Amino acid sequence: MIKSWSDLDYQPTVARIVTNSLQRNRIAHAYLLDGMKGTGKKDVSYLFAKSLLCKDRNGVDPCQGCSNCKRIDSRNHPDVHVLEPDGNSIKKQQIQFLQEEFTKTGLESKRKIYIIEHADKMTTNAANSLLKFLEEPNQETFAFLLTENVHQMLNTIISRCQPLSFRALTSTRMVDKLVEEGFSLPLARTASHLTNSLEEAVELCRDDWFALARNLVIKLYEALFTRQQQALLFIQEKWMPHFQDRKQLEIGLDLMLFIYKDMLYAQVDKREEFVFADEKEQIEKFALQTTQQRVTEHLSYILQSKSRLASNVNPHLLMERLALNLQEGY
């Protein structure tokens, strides 16, 4: 979670707009935070709420220590209301309840804040109710609408909000943020290629399952080149017990794809693109033992396996077939 606006250096435009507004005390009554999952929209909405309600603000930054900051962090501040979809949508009754709450006097200050997550999932009736709310804003009421699909929202709602557009993080920037969080460079590089969501990447890096998955991919890769007779046994005894469901197996196949791409990068002298940079010497060694055409065929086998995984194919048979294909020619 970001603690100050300087932490938002990966979204410089958003940080500049918000800090300028806070410095000049020219806060819009409604903001539309639009961007892909994991780009920081939720963190920004809560940090903004703390900047608006903090009792001991340091410039534009909340102190993080007062009762208001702490209660916003714990999601139990009486003047900060968060709305999420009830099932698949945000319903009219939820917006009406919000409106009723905002007719009451703030318990801690005159200011009241509401945050609507997945605002694009409002029903038509809910969106129309919110529109009336936005058209007649209270001076001390502030709204934050979060969405990953701004094109699905009413233009009339969009036009009444200050837009804050969040960019997807580049792979390089995500690696930097993950390393700042204390994760190893190899783990950070791998996670950054699996998702463009910083939040999801952090969850992956914190998961011991993911670190072990990465190691198993390296070991299977080694076996396919140096201990071919053991590769099928490795799949049975080590691989399948770890990659137990289709989502996990898909991650395993993605990691296999990355390490074989690294072979191709070694052959075309693009080593800076390596995902498994910590395995550089071994990858370069194996790359010398085959051709670009053969590596391209291997990449095709892995992609075919990913495609077949989406159907009801037996995962164990799929991996055995893939291993046999990857061993051909050695």
Structural commentary:
This is DNA polymerase III subunit delta'. One of its GO terms (molecular function) is DNA-directed DNA polymerase activity. It catalyses: DNA(n) + a 2'-deoxyribonucleoside 5'-triphosphate = DNA(n+1) + diphosphate. It comes from Sutcliffiella tianshenii. InterPro entries: DNA_pol_HolB, DNA_pol_III_delta_C, DNA_Rep/Repair_Clamp_Loader, P-loop_NTPase. With 330 residues, the protein is α/β, with parallel strands linked by helices. It folds into 2 domains: 164 residues, Rossmann fold (3-Layer(aba) Sandwich); 121 residues, Zinc Finger, Delta Prime, domain 3 (Up-down Bundle), CATH 1.20.272. Helices cover 55% and strands 8% of the residues. It contains 15 helices and 5 strands. A 5-stranded parallel sheet has the order 2-3-4-1-5, sandwiched between helices. The protein starts with 11 loop residues before the first helix and ends with a helix.
